[in-house]
User: Fold this.
Amino acid sequence: MKRAAQGSRTNIPGGMATHLPEGASLRRYAQETILSIFFKWGYKEVVTPVFEYLDILAAGLSSGLLEKSYKFVDRESGKLMILRPDITPQVSRMAAGILSDEPKPLRLCYYGNVFRYEESHAGREREMFQMGCELVGTSAPEADAEIIAVASEAVRGLGIDDFKIVIGQVGYLCGIVSFLKDSYGQNLLPENEQTLQEAIVKRDVDLLESILDRIGITGKTKKNILQIPTLFGGEEIFDKALQIARNKDSAKAIENLRQICSILRLHQLTDHVLFDLCDIRGIDYYSGLFFEIFSPGMAYPIGRGGRYDTLIGRFGHECPSTGFAIDIESIIMAKEKQGRSFTDSGIHYLIIGDKKDHGLIIEIGRELRGAGCRVIMDTEGQDADASVDYAKKNKIEKVIVIQGEKVKEYSVIDVKTGKKTKVSKEKIIPSHPPLLKKGERKLRSR
Assistant:
């Protein structure tokens, strides 16, 4: 990732990045690897517009995302447009419109960039690349478990095995707040409700207690609510959560988590799963289960998702759905922090020779590319020494030298060792293409 110096004539806007060949190759590899996993699970790719009409897409965006969005006026219509800050609302609009008559459930996936304003000191980019899946038209817990399993396999597909999936459920805290409204409605003002939720999310027991005192909550109810910040861990917290929140909605949320947990056990993900019943998502369209995927050393999640049963209804008919998105930049950083590298995207061969041999150079290059190799051809007429030096600087593995007047001779120079070997023309083309060798298309660390 490269940025031009301030004041440079090649400067770009803050929060944006230019990816040079190596960085671009990493991102392409991540994209292809993750998409191939999505396809294996039966998800079909869709492509959404980079910008849309603000008044239409706004129906699916939270106030926070709207505030961070980039907006401009369409020169043709004069209408306000928005650069997409999130792709899930776009897929929801598609599901409510042009895909509404398709048989359900729909399994859709995507890759694209999103744009959000971030303060320069926040350490986050303003253009982010996301990949994700949406499972549309089912409310079954099996669907939520599948979405988590697909996201986990995508993370593992890039060689990241050390990760945690932190799962919450919107209904648990909503049930508690509804219970308090019914019991203490006259004292539970909107500002007290918001501060109460913030105290729970921050696990600030002192602040939580002061708010409960302000509302007038005492006795066993107060004691139970003060235990909510402790509800983090494995499935063993479910029984305690039920004792703390004795209301129908919270109990329903816990039962939903139990069902999903049992299915995740079948997916062999138990060791990666934790539950957090104190969290409230910043994006307001989640309606049930939600989750974030964390990797050690990362300040932000590398992926997140959840159930959004009411989102599609904002664009048309109601339709239960669940999905997730992975942040490509974050997952690449997570990979690098674990000290593992991606597959090499270097060039396999550089072919050199006299100008009169250009037809032969093109022929050999064509055959090597047909065998799956990455090949470049010399256009400058450089000698072998200069070509080897060029190859070293550009991560080219071998130099093929064609020489001779009447009888052509072929040599292959190993750039790393400098060893030069004379070969016949027939021996130049590998019987096992480099791109198809075992492990070549996989991560080196595997």
The two ends are 25 Å apart (CA to CA). The first strand starts at residue 44 and ends at 45.
